[in-house]
Amino acid sequence: DVQLQASGGGLVQAGGSLRLSCAASGVIFGINSMGWFRQAPGKGREWVSTISTGSSNTFYTDSVKGRFAISRDNAKNTLYLQMNSLKPEDTAVYYCARRAHIIVSSEYDLWGQGTEVTVSS
């Protein structure tokens, strides 16, 4: 199977931490940049972070800079998102995705099923 499986979501209090994982199978994991996206209730999909193939370059949306850290372990075919100092506005379903080399339909061409993160006050 060619798939991404996101996991690690849950319910946490504001100020807490959570680490999301994204396990890839059926792909050559190390040759694509990977990203995290999120969709809050009633809102559109938002880009959160991207990491290059060898982890040399990372990018974050302004709202999570200094709090979230994206990483990857190519030997384990796994992408991570460490989330610290969580805020209620971080509540969303988080998706991992593979960045395409050539854009046919979308910049990201393979998506995980999502894992839900809820941050309470």
3D architecture notes:
With 121 residues, this protein is an all-beta fold. 0% of the residues lie in helices and 51% in strands. The strands form 2 sheets. Strands 2, 4, 5, 6, 9, 10 and 11 form a 7-stranded mixed sheet that branches. Strands 1-3-8-7 form a 4-stranded antiparallel sheet, with no helix packed on it. β5 (45-51) and β6 (58-60) form a beta hairpin.
Oligomeric state of the chains in view: single chain
From N to C, what is the helix and strand string?
EEEEEEEEEEE
Helicity level: under 10%
What are the low-pLDDT stretches, counting only 5+ consecutive residues below 50?
none
Percentage of residues in strands: over 45%
Q: What composes the largest sheet?
A: 7 strands, mixed
Approximate shape? globular
> Given the helix and strand composition, which structural class is it?
mainly beta
Mean pLDDT: 97
Give the CA-CA distance, first to last residue.
39 Å
| Rg over CA atoms | 14 Å
Number of helices: 0
Beta-strand segment tally: 11
Helices and strands in order:
Elements: E1 3-7, E2 11-13, E3 18-25, E4 34-39, E5 45-51, E6 58-60, E7 68-73, E8 78-83, E9 92-99, E10 108-111, E11 115-120
